Amino acid sequence: MTELPDRVVGDARTSDFGWNLLTDLTDIGNRMAGSTGERRGAERVVEAFEAAGLRNAGLDEFEIPGWWRGESSLSVSGAVERRHENSHEVIALPGTPSGEVTAPLIDVGDGTDEEFAAAEDDLDGAVAMASSRTPESHDRWIHRMEKYVAAAERGAVGFVFRNHIEGALPPTGEIGYHNRPGPIPAVGVSKEVGDRLARLAEPAEHGGLAGSDGSGAGDRPTVSLDVDCRNEPTTSVNAVAEVGPDTEEAVYLTAHVDAHDVSDGANDNGAGSALVAEVGRLLAAVEGDLDTRVRLVTFGSEEIGLWGAYHAAETTPREEIACVVNLDGACSSRNLRVGTNGFDGMRSTFEAVADAFDAPLATGETISPHGDQWAFVQEGIPAVMASTTSDQSGRGWGHTHADTLDKLDSRDLGEVATLVTAAVYRFATGEVGATHRSRESIRDAIDEGYVEELKTGGRWPYDE
Fold this sequence. Notes:
This protein is an alpha/beta fold. The chain folds into two domains: about 5-65 and about 235-455, Zn peptidases (Aminopeptidase, 3-Layer(aba) Sandwich); about 70-230, Glucose Oxidase, domain 1. The protein has helices at about 5-15, 15-30, 35-50, 115-120, 120-125, 145-155, 190-200, 265-285, 305-315, 345-355, 375, 410-425, 440-445, 450-455, and strands at about 55-75, 80-85, 90, 100-105, 125-130, 160, 185-190, 220-245, 250-255, 295-300, 320-325, 335-340, 360-365, 385-390. Strands 1, 2, 3, 4, 5, 6, 7, 8, 9, 10, 11, 12, 13 and 14 form a 14-stranded mixed sheet that branches. A hairpin with a 4-residue loop joins strand 1 (about 55-75) and strand 2 (about 80-85). Homodimer. The monomeric form is inactive while the homodimer is active. One of its GO terms (cellular component) is extracellular region. It is found in: Endoplasmic reticulum; Golgi apparatus; Lysosome; Secreted. One of its GO terms (molecular function) is metal ion binding.
């Protein structure tokens, strides 16, 4: 079994190359898909590729549906009068259209199918509010886009997405995906604002505020949403480079460089981009050992629908991709998690690496459409997503103003770089251990809930 040389392991755990790149990416600020900041981030990654001695470093441009944020506000009227217009309280969700609506507020809890069904009679002409939480009893994570579409399909005229993490500020995140712009205005609010709105929205007999005559009539608050934004076509870029022999087939190591505009995007996903460059640098030190070319890519526009990953998958012959290791949110700790999408050979390689380093490893087998690896998985190409686990609930600081460098630790980055380099080294030294599958076998193995999500978001890739 091919082992990563000790000198490379030592380098991985003492180098500041990846951390310096991560610091520079977070200092750029707004790296929203299609923005000047996203391109600056990609250019900085290319600089790192070149400094690491990788070849064919450059940018690959493609078209996307762009979105630019304006000002947003949420006002409450009724027994309580409040106006929220600061970005730590309320922000527009990417993919939303501009618009102004005033309507009663209906809280649909966590936004499960059962909760939407129970509130269906009240949602027509209302503003629906759903939490970012997915109940622990639920068999899969419920994406915000599903909650948004469920509200619109039931006649809601606006949507409020409230964070369930205290102190984590309002969440952002795409709600249009490949159906941009969405049909109704949508905003995210902090847990603190959302909790107040939920309390006010309760019927009087359940603790909500009664009408001015004490009868309970008119006890639901009226909210006004005012969203200003712009939806226009633009371009995005992937940053690419290569290391190893000039073989036709390649092992892909990927991440996404874009981040939501309200955030520095430290863990999601500046860390992933920094790790791609760092692993590339470490592999360059043992380039002569590699039997298979390694292609390094930091994708643009992941956060708004995986556009960079789709571009790469659609412009590369399937047989030229041996396997894909995608990094996303991989620096919240040093505890690696690998979503294998059912590719057992790739899971076995990561398990062997974890055993060799006596490192913890969590794995999941579910075929998931969340993350850039999906653009390859849907085609039957072996692809996994590597992240890290932490004690934080849900997404943690991701998709908020608070996804900043101070939440991360350079030692965690070094440990993850060690493990990922060891795995990619094995994949590229004749031990890929991953077999392509047919598109039909992938299609038939996707959970019914994810089938619905993909169709709802305009991303179902299979003919009926």
